[in-house]
Amino acid sequence: MKTCYITTPIYYSSGNVHIGNSYSTIACDVFSRYHRLNGYDTFFLTGMDEHGQKIENAAKKQQKSPQSLVDEIAKSTEELWKNLNISNNDFIRTSEERHYRIVQAIFERLLAQGDIYLGEYEGDYCVPCEAFLTKTQLVNEKFCPDCGRETIKVKEESYFLNLKKYEKRLLQYIKEHPHFIQPETRKNEVISFIEQGLEDLCVSRTSFQWGIPVLSNPKHVIYVWIDALSNYLTALGYQSGNDELYRKYWLEGTKVFHIVGKDILRFHAIYWPIMLMALEVPLRFELIAHGWILMKEGKMSKSIGNVVYPMDVVNRYGLDPLRFYLIKEMSLGNDGVFTYERFIEKYNVDLANDLGNLVSRTISMVNKYQQGIVYKPTATYFSWDQEVEGKIADVIQTYQNDFNRFAFQDGLQEVWSLVGRANKYIDETIPWALAKDPNQQKALQSVLYRLLEMIRVVTIMIAPVMPDTAHIILEELGLDQTHLSFLELQYGAVDTMKVTEKPIVLFKRLDLEEEIKKYGI
Ligand code: MSP
What are the structural domains of the chain? Predict the structure, then answer.
C-alpha cells in the first residue's frame, strides 16, 4: 500500500498556540486527510518543542517548574487540536523519554564520528527564536532578522556540528531533486544562503539547564534545533529497538513531507538534511514552506494586542468556516491576512450563498419533484449535460494536481467553479418549469441527478478542508461515509440517491453590521 508521512513543525511550549501557528497544523491536517481519501496509508505527526531558554525563562516568570509548564501547554494544545478536528496519529513531546533518549544517542554518535566537535562560541543569540546569528544576519548590528527583537551576546564552550563538510553534497542534492524544497522561490533562497558558505552550527549550551543533557558531558544541554528536528525520526521509533513505523513510513515509505513556516525554512532545508546525511539516514522528505497569516497591522503580537486565538472564531462561527477561510485565503508560499470583515464576506459568499444554497435548493427540489429519489439517467437531455460532465472531470483533475502540491487555494478555487457551474445549470435548465410539463419528467429527473452528482463530487473534494460539513452533506444525500473516497470521485459513481426530507441550513448568513455591534470587530 502506498504510504504518506506528514509532519507539522513542533510548537514551542512558551505560550498558547494562536491562529497563525494553528494554520500550520490545519494545513497539514488538510494534506493528511487528502492523502487518506486518495488511498494513502497516512501517518500524520505533530507535537511540542519543549526545551530551551525561552521556556525556562517563561517557567521562572510563572514560578513553575519547566516540566509543569510544558505539561500544561501540551495538554491545552492537544485539546485545541481535538477541537479543530486535527487527525494526527501521534503527538510527540521533546521532554518524553522516547524522544530524549534517542536524541542523546544521536548526539553521541555524531560526536564519536567527528561530525560534532567541542569548541567555543562567541556571538549573538536570539532567545525568542532560539537562534544563533552571524554578524551578517543581524539587523543594525544587534536585532534578530526574523523577529526584530534585540539579541544577546553569548560566549561559552559549545559543541558544533560540522556543516562545511556536507555543504557541497547538500547543494548538489538540492539541485538534483527539484521537488526537495517548495515553492521554487524558497528553494532559491536556500541555495543562495548555502552558496555564501555555511558556518558550523552551535549545537549545545551551558548557560541554561532546561534541555537534554549531553550524555558524555552533562554540563551541556543539546541546543534546541538538534533536539527539535530529531522528533521527525524519534516519533517513528528510529533506533528505539522498535522501528516498524520508521521502516514503513520513512525507509520504505512512498511520500514524506515536512511542512513548515517560511521562518524556519533554513533549519529544515540545511541543518536537518545535513544531520541526516551524517547519520546515514536517507533523505526521503520533501519540504514545503508556507507563508504567514498576518493581521491588518502586520504580524500578530501580544504587545499590539491583535492576537486571534482559533477558538474565539470557532465559538462564534463554527469550525469548518475557520478551516475553510484559512486554507482558501493562503496561496502557496505567500502570506495571507486575517480580518473578521473578510472572514464574514467569504463565509456569506462562498459558504452560505454558493455552497449552502446549492445543497438546500437541490435537495428541496428532489423532494418536491421526485419524492426524494433520483436515479442515474441513461440519456442526455440538454446541450449543457455533456459539458457539465466534462467540467466535473476537468475540475477533479486540476483539484488533484493542486492539492498534490499543497496549492489548496487554487484547488478550492476549482471546486468553487464547479459549485458555480451547478448553480448556473439550475438557471439554464429551470427545473420548476420542467416540473410543470408531464413530457419533461425524464429530463427533470436527469437534471436533478446531475445536480446531486455535482454536489456529491464537491463534497468529496471539500472533505479534507471541511470534514464535518462533508459528513453532513453526504448524509443528506442518503450516502454513508464509505462513499467518502477518491474511488468515487467521478461523475456517475453512484446510481441512486435518496435524499433527506429536510435539509438543514449549513451556513446561516451573517450580518456584518450585527457582528460588529456584538463583538466590536
Ligand atoms: N519549535 C519551532 C519549530 C521546530 S520544528 C522541528 C518553532 N515553533 S513555533 O511555535 O514558533 O512555530 C511553529 C510554526 O508556526 C512554524 O511553522 C511557524 O512558521 C508557524 N507560525 C507562527 N506564526 C505564524 C503565523 N502568523 N502564520 C502562519 N504560521 C505561523 O518554530
Answer: 3-290 (3.40.50.620), 339-498 (1.10.730.10)
